[in-house]
Amino acid sequence: MRDARYDVLFEPVQIGPVKTRNRFYQVPHCTGMGYRYPNAEARFRGIKAEGGWGVVSTQEVEIHPTSDLTPYNEGRLWDDRDIPALEMVTEAVHAHGSLAAIQLVHNGHHSSNRMSRLSPMAPSVAASASMDPVQARAMSLSDIKDFRKWHVDAARRAKRAGFDIVYVYAGHDMSLLQHFLLSRHNHRSDDYGGSFTNRLRLFREVIADTKDAVGDSMAIAVRLAVDELMGEDGLRHDVEGHDIIAALAEEPDLWDVNLSDWSNDSQTARFTAEGYQNPYTGFVKSLTSKPVVGVGRYTSPDAMVAMITQGHLDLIGAARPSIADPFLPHKIEHGLQDQIRECIGCNICVSGDNTAVPMRCTQNPAVGEEWRRGWHPEHVVRTDDAATYLIVGGGPAGLEAAQTLAKAGQNVKLAEAGGDWGGRVTREARLPGLSAWGRVRDWRLQHLTTAANVEMYLHSPMTAEDILAFGADHVVLATGARWRDDGVGKTHRVPLGFLRKGPLMTPDDVMAGALREDAGSGPIVIYDDDQFYLGSVLAEAAAATGREVIFITPASMVAPWSDHTLEQMRIQKQLIEKGITIMTSTLLSGRDAGQVTVACVYSGQQHHVPAELLIPVTSRLPNDELLHQLNARNTDAITSVTAIGDAYSPGLIAMAVYSGHDYAMTALGHTAADPRREDVVARQD
Ligand code: ADP
Ligand code: SF4
User: Considering only CA atoms, which of 286, 337, 403, 388 is closest in space to residue 10?
Assistant: First the structure.
């Protein structure tokens, strides 16, 4: 039964000529699938509709080869040949009674057209926003006319593909229409540049063109970034962001408003809390009678209701919350809001698009596997014959395997050596900014602790003898991994013998509280050769002790991989603001009392850096001793012994969750050994 407090979320909303059945709106978001994996894309979107999202949008869809984002897997509507792939999306969405929206885009100087080899286009001559040594040419009036036609053609094709809502998009600093709006990018002196009215002209024209072309049956949505968080150097919600909405207030059928660029729109939980966009977008409704959708990593139905009843939004927009839990609306509708699998705000999903592969999600292991492996985020088929599974280790891999097997009706026994569930997730969630990561543990525990077919044991370190004596049919070793103390990582492939010539703590020691108990007061060196988030988080933890902290990395910037999660700039800024000394492109090459010797990665030039305590963050070793011990013993009485998660191969938390799910689905016979492929093609002349 639905809680009456949430009724407002299930009211239909008229959007121009179409009506959505509720206020849950999956805004456009990338998937890393797009035109290159159209079956996977369609199935993924269809499941969102099945889960109750009233509107399900595509990702950005390129309208012309002059906007070619190769190698990234976005949507594509260059010509009629792209219609069938998008038709699969609309059919999948309509099958569950939802509306399908398409976000058309021309990326202007954001695309470098690697495959089409055409010259990028921009309001004014501009360097490419990518790393490529390419420039965009300034559009002539005839180019502007062409662009308007391409947009109309794409809108008509979108209609033929069955979409209900079509976007005119000016966001993320990735859209030609936004480039025309911004004086930073638009240096023209004709009717399309200079004054506010002139810079607005093309946006206004394209909205009108789209309305004329398809507005009889399709709703026209405008996606506008109202603030760029750049102060006076960019668009501000209380200056031109406000003025654009005021000038075009009644022109579209729907306003989808957010922040630009993408790193501001999709901020992680490390840096922002739920609802972080509302201070910037909350004004929009006061200027228009049209429905307004906005985002802010909303996972709590109470926060969603407040956005509606306080008059900030008409529709609750979501990208990441709908990825982590495609059934979020369904759960609220059926009084199951406690079972929402809340997004942890880690942006591993974003890294999929940024590395041009189908995305994965830390919380939802089925993401990207709905078509390829037939996985569903909610449904696990119950099996008649129950076996007993002993799962050793209660981290993300063990918990995910346990809850998937339990859902299928298997007998699950879960043994954890420590006094807490969650393994690395629990340890890392105690570090600065990462508390939301505990949701990975909490969602799984909630199911496990109430399931009748699950027994759970804390304080239960298992030996090989214990396991052999236990009598389980299947043994699953989810015993995790430990951080190395010898410096081996991406840069140093053999142990650094000098590291122990002074006090040293591994990240595991720090997470166990060693830093708080350390009697030292001298400088702490973090040596980060892992190059993702943990080194920087430990640097913050070290700085919180009041000691001098020096962050040394062979990489050319702090935490380079966090560029894929849109966090790199914020991480480096935060370290600078906390007074942490940063030394990039620097190797560790020696250690004596009170100092380390470092060397430039390019020249080898050495110098000394004061260091009382050294914390190397380099790579991890699997805790696979039990596996080797069992392999050396007679295990004939056990049907299978399998290592999963970090114990099998250390990686991201998302990979451990995936590994746990994969193990369970394979053991249950619910997944094909050979995943389906769509990157194989018929020969063409
Ligand atoms: P993963 O990410 O693969 O789930 P974690 O390191 O997060 O790995 O979790 C592994 C868990 O396994 C830890 O909580 C650890 O205490 C537990 N563990 C390790 N060895 C044993 C053992 N022999 N018996 C029981 N639990 C163990
Ligand atoms: Fe949320 Fe992380 Fe999943 Fe993305 S990967 S949807 S941020 S939990």
Answer: 337
pTM for the model stands at: 0.97
What pLDDT is recorded for position 215?
A: 98
Q: How far is it, in rounded angstroms, from Cα 477 to Cα 648?
A: 8
Structural domain includes residue 200: yes
| Model confidence pLDDT, tens digit, residues 623-651 | 999 999 999 998 899 999 999 999 999 99
Give the structural domain span for 658.
388-480+623-667
Structure tokens at 281: 């977008």
From the list 587, 592, 630, 585, the residue with the least C-alpha distance to 610 is: 592
Which residue is catalytic, options 109, 110, 151, 172?
Answer: 172
- What lies within 8 Å, CB to CB, of 133 at 6+ separation is none
Tokens of 604: 């080898």
Report the residue count for the chain: 685
Which pLDDT score, from 0 to 100, does residue 1 have? 86
Query: Tokens 């050769």 appear where?
Result: 529
Among protein residues, the one whose CA lies closest to atom 23 of ligand 1 = 462
Domain count, the chain: 3
At 530, which CATH number? Answer: 3.50.50.60
State whether residue 292 is helix, strand or coil. strand
Q: List, chain by chain if needed, residues with CB within 6 Å of any ligand 1 atom.
A: 392-398, 415-418, 423-424, 460-462, 478-481, 623, 626, 645-647, 656
- Active-site residue 265, yes or no? yes
Angle at 637 between CA 631 and CA 638, to 5 degrees: 60
Pocket flag, ligand 2, residue 359 (CB < 6 Å): no
Measure 633 CA to ligand 2 centroid, in angstroms: 41
> For residue 684, what pLDDT is reported?
80
User: Is the C-beta atom of 258 inside 6 A of ligand 2?
Assistant: no
- Tell me the CB-side half-sphere exposure of residue 270, using CA atoms within 13 A: 24
Residue 118 falls within a domain, yes or no? yes
Residue 162: per-residue pLDDT: 98
Closest CA to 377 of 347, 339, 350: 339
Q: Which amino acid is at 644?
A: I
Helix axes 534-543, 568-577, angle to 10 degrees: 20
The list of the chain residues with pLDDT below 50 reads: none
Summarised one tens digit per residue, pLDDT across range 390-404 is: 999 999 999 999 999
Catalytic residue check, 79: no
Give the domain-ending residue among 330, 354, 378: 354
